[in-house]
Amino acid sequence: MSEDNLLRDVLRSGVLADLPDRHFIDGAWRPASGGGVMESFDPGRASPHAVFAAGDEEDVAAAVAAAKRAGEGAWKKALPRERGRILSRTAELIRQNSERLAIAEVLDSGKTISEARGDVAGAARCFDYYAGAADKNEGKSFPLGEDYSSFSLNEPVGVTAHIVPWNYPLSTAARSVAPALAAGCTAVVKPAEQTPMTALMLAELLHMAGLPAGVCNVVTGTGSAAGAPLAAHPDISHITFTGSTATGMGVMQAAARNVASVTLELGGKSPNVVLADADLDLALDNVVGAIFENAGQICSAGSRLVIERSIHAEFIERLVRRAQDLRMGHGLSETVNFGAINSAGHLAKISSYLDGARARGLTVATGGNVAADPATGKGWFFEPTVIDDLAWDDPVVQEEIFGPVLAVQVVDDFDEAVAAANCTRYALVAGIFTRDLSRAHRFARAVDAGQVYVNEYFAGGIETPFGGNRKSGIGREKGLVAVHSYCKVKSVTVRI
């Protein structure tokens, strides 16, 4: 079936045939030890589209044991260049299966097909990048004088756990699994229970690319039944977790009991600063994308607009029109550019913030209501929303809503813009739009954030380290620094 026909067929039927419904452990599909299954829901229809295994501690133990065996066997013996070849073949297989992966991502997550296609392309690029890093994970030499030879080795930490969120299931799995494998580690992946499919599909593609059995395993199920036992398992050496700050703190506590290291990419409430001298057309395009891409369900979303008073009224008027022009609907419809909210529970959370905002008398410039797919009347949707001229201590400014809700803070000058940018407990991303690059550099130094975007929100790529400070997390993903997260350094000193 052609890709166009496949897309139309799935949009009509609501089902993508032959999706995986079991764990992937030790190179094979396995049912849940207890025989249980769960439903995966299509947010665009608010109805189930597939089933998958409901894993528990026994399944996690089997996956970790398989990963440990593989790490002490075939994978340990694999040359770095061979690891790189497997990752490179995986990138090619992702591209060959890109449309099927993208459709599965839409059905699980609710995002648009164009967004999902971008995620799949990014996952392939991720494996390309770390394929090139596998045989370049070099140590250092230390100058102790002519009587000694001293050097370091970067060794894999061992079995790694990857707890993946529901908003970017494939790309988040790729950006942690690929560097872990490049470093020579083995992996156990626990995708979110809302979006299990593409992690399972990725594991199969890795196996097809030549990855030995047990090197990458996927256990599906709830966070309490499968995620918690994985984080607490004594044979896990490193945990990479992406999700809420509260859950991340629990993961860190579990890791501490086994002295395991962690990479935590947690919440965000990122400011997007627009100064009066900015290219306003450019800024407007980026502000819209920063908050309304993936219906705002992005940890690094530009969920706060910090704008100078002299351009505030004109900019908000134009922004409201752009928000109202977005085309909401099921993500598999190629005429849509604004998708669904991932679950009924999350939709209720977003809606509760707007109930509170109205009760406090705040100005909702546009949106603010639960909605449905105009074509079917179904699905979990929330209107693109802008809440204007907020006090800095308002909950809409301070708390991560994780939806298509933009909080506007009006400031009088550059210094106040910096203060506004730094006014929350989060420090993941910050953006600024200005023609004055001197002020942009001053902002980049003054703002507390893991990454700063100047005149393009979401700038960068897999080459650029990504992560947060304060309540936004610890450690960095992406870039070569990610490989180092999965290594332990051994120094060797020889008296000559």
Distinctive features:
24 strands; seven-stranded mixed β-sheet; alpha/beta; six-stranded mixed β-sheet; Aldehyde Dehydrogenase, Chain A, domain 2; 41% helix; single chain; Aldehyde Dehydrogenase, Chain A, domain 1; 2 domains; 17 helices; 496 residues
What do these coordinates show?
This protein is of the alpha/beta class and about 500 residues long. It contains 17 helices and 24 strands. The strands form seven sheets. A seven-stranded mixed β-sheet has the order 14-17-18-13-12-20-21, with helices on both faces. A six-stranded mixed β-sheet has the order 9-8-7-10-11-23, sandwiched between helices. Strands 5-6-24 form a three-stranded antiparallel β-sheet. The radius of gyration is 23 Å and the shape is globular. It starts with a helix and ends with a strand. The model has no long low-confidence stretch (mean pLDDT about 95).
**What general form does the structure show?**
globular
> What is the strand content?
15-25%
List the uncertain runs.
Answer: none
Shape-level CATH architecture of the largest domain: 3-Layer(aba) Sandwich
- In CATH, the homologous superfamily of the largest domain goes by the name Aldehyde Dehydrogenase, Chain A, domain 1
Total strand segments? 24
Q: Helical region count?
A: 17
Give the end-to-end Cα distance, rounded to a whole number of Å: 67 Å
> In percent, how helical is the residue content?
40-55%
CATH topology of the largest domain: Aldehyde Dehydrogenase, Chain A, domain 1
Secondary-structure class: alpha/beta
Could you name the CATH class of the largest domain? Alpha Beta
Q: Could you say how many structural domains there are in total?
A: 2
The largest beta-sheet arranges its strands as 14-17-18-13-12-20-21
Mean pLDDT: 97
